[in-house]
Design a protein that fits this description.
This protein has 363 residues and is of the alpha/beta class. It is built from ten helices and ten strands. The structure holds 5'-O-[(R)-(carboxyoxy)(hydroxy)phosphoryl]adenosine and zinc ion.
């Protein structure tokens, strides 16, 4: 089964083709970073318009790279939410329109489920039950995965999402958009132990997160310095260290509470090497296995949507004619994926990836 995946939930147009037997055939990404950079953040209306401009050419390119024609597709998967509603509607309309004209099934995919299942593209060593830490620009979630599609939220941010905190702190430090990667780079020049940032909500039981206090703490710390480049690098490093530590403490707690010793960490913020390393340490200490997608599958991409769509279509799920687009969507509301064993598409690449993710585009 050839499945075309379409991702347009935010500021990245992603398209991929996943085959149920051969795995990922091609994936292309167009990032709108340059478009939004002058504004210091995403402008939703500009995002929608750019998806309209880029989506069809990107679909053509992705098909050509896989040496396929539209008529050879067996199904279409698109991100139906959560995300920017105008941006989502572009992928949803194109997805439904194509499926309608080609008379093939279409699946409406939850963006965060795409992130969550991304590591499965590369390993079959991971079987439910497992825990998943989903850290992105809009979400901070700690999930218990009982079966594929059966998700229970164990913890979430009570205020800012983690990526949002990275982006806002980066802005305070005078860094461009998107802030996460820029902050990580600056932190490499910093002394992490000069400032001690709090580890929010770790002094009480529970698995929820809070990041807005760290923003205020950063602002006050910066104001108390001369604001030199070294001051900023030291602050960036201390902030990153505090965030990584906080995530690690909550993940350890979740492993101990549930007794589940498999942990997936995914989403854009998981591209951060300090966080990857810190989670790796927790996995070692808790005798657990950590599964991390390679960098290109941490941040938004079409491959995770094509893959998740392939799983849901193989399990017989189909969308009706109504176009689905939801700005908000609870992962717990998803139906399970009743896959018979052996139906899981082949995994390519690393068995269990931790540390330096393999680079490059799988063929
Ligand atoms: O998953 P993603 O690409 O899009 C959403 O679904 O939100 O995540 C984007 C977020 C942004 O906030 C970005 O600053 C952050 O991930 N991010 C990072 C890094 N790379 C991306 N944060 C910290 N360190 C990074 N290396
Ligand atoms: Zn995302």
């Amino acid at each position: 089964m050839y499945v075309l995946g379409i991702e347009t939930s935010c500021d990245e147009t992603g398209v991929a083709i996943y085959h149920s037997k051969d795995g990922l055939l091609s994936h292309h990404l167009y990032s709108q970073i340059e478009l939004h950079a002058p504004y210091g953040g995403i402008v939703p209306e500009l995002a929608s318009r750019d998806h309209i401009r880029k989506l069809l050419p990107l679909i053509r390119e992705t098909l050509a790279a896989a040496d396929l024609s539209l008529e050879q597709l067996d199904g279409i998967a698109y991100t139906a939410g959560p995300g920017l509603i105008g941006a989502l509607l572009v992928g949803a309309s194109v997805g439904h329109g194509l499926a309608w004209s080609l008379k093939i099934p279409v699946a409406a995919i939850h963006h965060m489920e795409g992130h969550l299942l991304a590591p499965l593209m590369e390993t079959h060593q991971l079987n439910p039950p497992f825990l998943a830490l989903l850290i992105s620009g809009g979400h901070t979630l700690l999930i218990q995965v009982t079966r594929l599609g059966d998700y229970q939220v164990l913890g979430e941010s009570v205020d800012d999402a983690i990526g949002e905190a990275f982006d806002k702190v980066a802005k305070m430090l005078g860094l461009g958009y998107p802030g996460g990667p820029a902050l990580e780079k600056l932190a490499q020049q910093g002394a992490c132990d000069r400032f001690r940032f709090p580890r929010p909500m770790t002094d009480r039981p529970g698995l929820d997160f809070s990041f807005s206090g760290l923003k205020t703490f950063t602002m006050n710390t910066l104001a108390a310095t001369a604001g030199s480049q070294q001051d900023k690098a030291d602050i960036a490093c201390a902030f990153q260290h505090a965030v990584a530590d906080t995530l690690a403490i909550k993940c350890r707690r979740a492993i101990q509470q549930t007794g589940i010793r498999q942990l997936v960490a995914a989403g854009g913020v998981c591209a951060n090497q300090a966080i990857r390393n810190r989670l790796g340490k927790v996995a070692d200490q808790e005798n657990a296995r950590l599964f991390l997608p390679r960098h290109e599958f941490c941040t938004d991409n079409g491959a995770m949507i094509a893959f998740t769509g392939c799983l849901r279509l193989l399990a017989g799920q189909r969308e009706g004619p109504v176009i689905q687009a939801r700005a908000r969507w609870n992962l717990e509301d998803l139906p399970p994926i009743p896959l018979q064993s052996g139906l899981l598409p082949p995994a390519k690449g690393v068995e269990c990836c931790f540390g330096d993710a393999k680079k490059g585009t799988p063929k």
